[in-house]
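Complex record, two chains
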Amino acid sequence: MARAHGGGVRARVLIRPKSGISDPQGTAVERALPALGFSGVANVHVGRLVELDVEDAAQLEPMCEKLLANPLVEDYEIIVD
Amino acid sequence: MKFGVLRFPGSCDELDALAAARRVGDAELLWHGERDLRGADAIVVPGGFSYGDYLRAGAIARFSPVMESVIEFAGEGGLVLGICNGFQVLCEAHLLPGALLGNANRRFTFRQLALEVVNADTAFTRACATGEVLSVPAKHSWGRYYAEPQTLEAMEEGGQVLMRYAPAQNFNGSLRDIAGVCNEAGNVFGLMPHPEHAVDELTGSTDGLKIFQSMRLAMEGARV
């Protein structure tokens, strides 16, 4: 586990629209790609990336539940480097 | 009766909300960093881009000091109206069910809309008639109302859907054409279109005043 400066860990949180909820941004990108000559692209979804250094990795999940994601409409994935 | 109108960094409709509220009562701005609601009888959470809409619209405003007081005020039965970004803030604060997602048309859209009053038997709609159609503008990028199917069912049964976009007016893709909902207790109301921009004939409609008048009637009823 890499040490971030000041102790703790470096984490990335990937936030995606929940499957089943329409994602107009993903649809727009999916439609734009063939226009540029990129064929064979499907299931495009656009989400957010939050990078952060945290002293206590156990806080990441409550942070996601409370602020970083909206669990009603978004899934999140925590990656600790 | 006194309205307290919140002001966050990035709010832009608080002065129109203040002016609209002053047509039916007293009104005062309340800064986001203050906890004191200054004796307001009802709260308006205005439109705009609180805290720059960073992360998600309303996500950060929801944790501001003034919102701590508003959550407490709502818990005690106080009337809270959230307009546009205010609706997003109230959903993020879990004072209202559901969430507001990016418009289905993927664009910031600004237009005068026809809104159908679905339930006129509430503190926010009693100056209207059920089935009445109001002309009010909407202007937003994130207005697609979403809630889980069982939540929507319970809200419909409980009379919590107060306003719908009239046929062919739902540009944002809101489920069941929902434009405005209240909480189970009926004292918190969120609406994407802007009643505060429809209070003077100069701008084409005074229908928005009915929301503010309803709140005043509800407050006066409470005092009798």
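Note: DSSP finds five helices and eleven strands in chain B.
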